[in-house]
Design brief:
hpI Integrase, Chain A; alpha+beta; Tyr recombinase domain-containing protein; 190 residues; Integrase-like_cat_sf; 15% strand; DNA recombination; 9 helices; single chain
């Protein structure tokens, strides 16, 4: 299945949802991943102790490396609306199921073309974007949005913990059209 990222507008739409209970808890944890670039194993255990001033410091589980991240304004507001006590985490499977509901509620309904292998044959299929949202979409969204904001790749990699550009660029999900639109403003094309 094709991997997606959420635009800043889509992330804001999720942030702005009026939710309570489990959906609010999952939304808020997911938002932390969208603005920190942390893996699910790290953003699911994130708490206020990892924040010092406007800096997040956390020792990552997968590679046992400390990452230091500027605190995004959405992170600070998310913490504030939870009285700096983040909700408990849920299982990965449950999270992924609920994220699709949250994405649908946020109006992330554009169609996305995916390739699916069925009995050895590749089939193109259109699905709603919210159907593809998973916990890992948060990390991919952070990397792609930071890249589109022209933050230098080396600096983004210090946050995401990628050790090679090859591994990092697997996260960047811009379409050919987004790429062309961005390049259209480059002096080479003027």
């Amino acid at each position: 299945m094709d991997k997606i990222y959420l635009t800043l507008d889509e992330i804001k739409a999720i942030f702005d949802l009026e939710l309570d209970g489990t959906l609010a808890k999952i939304r808020d944890r997911f938002l932390i991943g969208c603005v920190t670039g942390l893996r699910f194993s790290d953003y699911s255990r994130f708490n206020g102790e990892h924040l010092s001033g406007n800096i997040v410091k956390i020792l990552t589980k997968k590679v046992n490396r400390e990452v230091v991240i500027p605190a995004h304004r959405l992170l600070l507001v998310t913490l504030e609306r939870n009285n700096n006590i983040l909700p408990e985490s849920y299982t990965l499977r449950y999270y992924n199921m609920m994220l699709k509901i949250i994405g649908s509620m946020a109006g992330i309904n554009d169609f996305v073309k995916i390739e699916e292998k069925i009995e050895g044959t590749v089939v193109n299929k259109l699905v709603r974007k919210f159907e593809l949202i998973t916990t890992h979409t948060a990390r991919r969204s952070f990397a792609t949005n930071a890249y589109l904001a022209k933050i230098p790749v080396a600096k983004i990699m210090l946050i995401t913990g990628h050790s090679t550009e090859t591994a990092f660029f697997r996260y960047i999900r811009i379409s050919k059209m987004e790429n062309a639109q961005e390049l259209a403003n480059h002096e080479f094309f003027r």
